[in-house]
Amino acid sequence: MTAVLETIELTRHFGQIAAAERITTSFQIGEWVGIVGANGAGKTTFLNLITGYIKPESGQVLYLGRDITGLPPRRIVQLGIARSFQVPQLYAGLTVSEHLLIALAARERQGLNPWRPLRQRTLESEAMALLTRFGLQDDAQRPITELPEGKRKLLDIAVSFALQPRLLLLDEPTSGIGAEEAMQVMETLLSALRPSGVTVIFVEHDMEVVKRYAQRVLLLEHGRVVADGTPMQVLQGGGEARIPLARQRGRI
Ligand SMILES: Nc1ncnc2c1ncn2[C@@H]1O[C@H](COP(=O)(O)OP(=O)(O)OP(=O)(O)O)[C@@H](O)[C@H]1O
Ligand SMILES: [Mg+2]
Fold first, then answer.
1. Domains in the chain and their CATH numbers?
2. How many Å lie between the centroid of ligand 1 and the Cα of residue 142?
């Protein structure tokens, strides 16, 4: 198997807090990996270090064998790593399809293209195809303020996916929604993303989601990887007991 991403001894502190402590791991092409751990364990920090939102004190991030440590987030997106955030990054005044059109236009950097009217139509059909892929085709003209949270999550991820990443990092794709809707969101993601072969790393608090959708799980504690294996190995090997129940769904 080929690693799409490797981190080597990745380390970052905030004051006395170890948010990432010598994280050495790698992710294979097409793999779906769940990142779990208690509140403040360093899950978001790990995604921030990979995507350039924060810089490590030491250690390296290698993407397809290339050192991308310390590159600015925009450059990292251009190379093929996209992400979603814990809170969806959407704009209240825009419709669902406008979000995708803007993402696609940004990708194309179409600015001075003389064939712009023609290109516009192509982008519109690509936006529609993406919406259909993420089960949002009937919501295309709705302002995002009217969408239920599950669909807002899906739209946010569709926008990231529009950038044609090879690696997609999702920070809590099912937070803020009920257990049933969470499974629907994950099913939609599976059918939308799996055929593309994109590697998916997702932070998740719902252990049922992790068991069903992660091929591999990393358990973080105080910025360290303390377990790495199949969901069965990590969660049933005592890992689940190490994640405070207070953060599991329905008990927040
Ligand atoms: N920009 C920052 N400035 C100061 N401290 C930070 C910063 N980002 C993270 N931290 C601290 O680093 C630790 C790890 O935070 P992080 O957000 O990565 O945790 P998390 O595992 O994503 O938690 P949650 O499940 O609540 O989202 C926490 O103690 C947090 O307070
Ligand atoms: Mg977080």
1. 1-80+165-252 (3.40.50.300), 89-163 (no CATH)
2. 34
